[in-house]
Amino acid sequence: MRVRDAVGFHPRSTLSEPRREYKQMLECQKYRVHFTYTGRYGSIRMPKNADPFCRNILKGFLNLLTLTPRYQKEYEVLEDGLEGECNTRYVLYEEKKNNIYLFNRIRDLNNCKQKVMLNVGIPFFHLFQQPNCFQRERFVQGTSAFVTKVKRDNKGDLITQVKSEQVLEFPIGGEDATGYMKAHQLLNLREVRPDQGQQQQQQQQQQQQEEGELEVTSIRYEIPKSLFFARDGELQQRSCTTG
């Protein structure tokens, strides 16, 4: 079976291919992020004039490098990230021959504190639904998995590669019908540039002037204000039936 993504209101209108925002993503490269990092992030500062789309793209890169190392082979922590503070399980593998450590990190997106989310729908809609139907419609399972490769030498630890996969599973109608969305990311270290001292500081100051004023933010996803308003007066209707 082959599945293609499309947008529209079926069957009232014809579905069309979604717009690809490659140009908008490339424009985000002009912005820089200033942060302190010790595995977890301290202060994060971004340009005030950057739109939420670019800010979220940059936060997505930062989220890949989040790491909470412990002197244990397996452990669980409450770790902050794009979705909020979520229960995260670590499994550590060591390749002693190559001085490489592999951190396998699994975030349970259904077990989070201060979760970043936006509920869209009619208030008290569940009062008019059959109980089983409502529970099935709102039950979405989410998991993010990361594999971080760390190289250790006399100079310290260096992250050389990060792989990630996020899966969201949700009901799409019927008792056993389930759909899912999957996203992959791969980050490879290409080069390590030496510290250029004063010249580098001057370049950073010039970039900061071009970017404008910076503001302190968190690593969590920012929901664009445009999502709070209906577009073109369209109201999406949902229906649910049980057998």
TrEMBL record:
Entries under SUPFAM superfamilies matching the protein: Lipovitellin-phosvitin complex, beta-sheet shell regions
Instruction: Give residue ranges for domain Vitellogenin.
Output: 20-207
InterPro entries recorded: Lipid_transp_b-sht_shell, Vitellinogen_b-sht_N, Vitellogenin/Apolipophorin, Vitellogenin_N
For the region Disordered, give the residue spans.
194-215
Recorded GO molecular functions are: lipid transporter activity; nutrient reservoir activity
The biased composition feature labelled Low complexity covers 196-209
Keyword terms of this UniProt record? Signal, Storage protein
Q: Name one GO biological process term.
A: response to estradiol
Q: Which domain of life is it from?
A: Eukaryota
Gene3D superfamilies, per database record: Lipovitellin, beta-sheet shell regions, chain A
Q: What is this protein called?
A: Vitellogenin-2-like
From which source organism is this entry?
Answer: Notechis scutatus (mainland tiger snake)
Gene field: LOC113431207
